[in-house]
Amino acid sequence: MAASRWLLLTLLLLSFTFSRAAVTNVTIDDTDLSYFTWTEDPSTGVSPTLPWAAASVASPCSYCSAQPQGNDGGVNIHNQTWHDGTDGSAGSLTFHGSAVYIFGIDLTNPANISFTLDKTAAGFHYYAGNERFIYNSLFFSVQNLDPNSNHTVGWSLHSTPTNGTVALFDYAILTTDASSTSASPSASQTNSPSSSNSKSKSKTGPIVGGVVGGLAAITLIVLALFFLRRRGQKPRDTTPTDVHPFVSDRAEATPPISVSADAVTSPMSEKMLDVSWNNPTLLPTQPTTATSPSVTSAPSELPSSAPPPSTAPLTAADNMSASGSSPSTRETRAPTTTTDSSARTQALEARLAQLEARMGDYLPPAYGDEEEGGRRD
């Protein structure tokens, strides 16, 4: 869900950028009367003898003081045409777009040019240098206009204290939506010399660079937000889980068994294995004379299917063997200590051996005639 939101936001930003980038620069020559008008200044009330002279390299103005075409054939003049004005001359440019740039030819001791934008004062242009001619000079510019409205830039020429009266207008560049251009550029634009093309490219380059830079910035912002979001998420717990073995409660409840073995002096000597159970009353009355170091062990787990101990009755030979020796030297049935026997089996066998040893200290009761004779006496 989050990924789809980011994708939608990116597409919206890109579509907005492309919609903003769907503008173009249109070069308007001074001879295109669908944009330009060349008149006298109505504010002065004095009409110039020749308001504007539409000159060109092919048809130069013979009475004009300024001859910008020079000896190189006017290769630096856009479309090799220009308008020559004098004191009292006026003009205007009407267009539909978001920006406008008006270019002309500066010369020594020119007139002072005042500009208006939509009938509001917008500045002036005056060249104070010493160069004979400066081509592609920017006279006026304005940006950030409403692209959906028509705009009019007006100008008028005024003499200066140094008797400067001449101004030379060459062309204009409009920034507008390609689909909203009210009139097509003149045919002279397609055949413009390389100098004018380079000028147009110089204006188009920053716009293209701005569009590409904007796309790159948006991409970087989206990537940065994506990585920050991923970094802010809680990482998964990758710590391995410790596995503890299961220990039965029954094994913990079983008490340890203390086992001591008599030292063995020879292969034929008798050995004694004393097993002490938890009940002190079952311990033998006589202590063991010789013992070995004690080894204590606790069973880790009770058997579930251990065979039951033998419950066969004691024989007479067993009683005689038990009565003829002391508990400490008496041979008992020691529990099996092999590795396959369980701890509980050992405990039961040890307890049975203790009981057999204690039973050997007592004579069996009389039976039959002896019992009856005793009663008679």
TrEMBL record:
Instruction: Report keywords, A-Z.
Output: Membrane, Signal, Transmembrane, Transmembrane helix
List all Low complexity biased stretches: 180-199, 280-304, 325-357
Give the residue spans that cross the bilayer: 207-228
List where Acidic residues composition bias occurs: 368-377
Region (Disordered) residue spans: 180-203, 278-377
Domain of life, source organism: Eukaryota
Annotated signal peptide: 1-21
State whether keyword Repeat applies. no
The answer on whether this UniProt entry bears the keyword Signal reads yes
Which protein is depicted? Uncharacterized protein
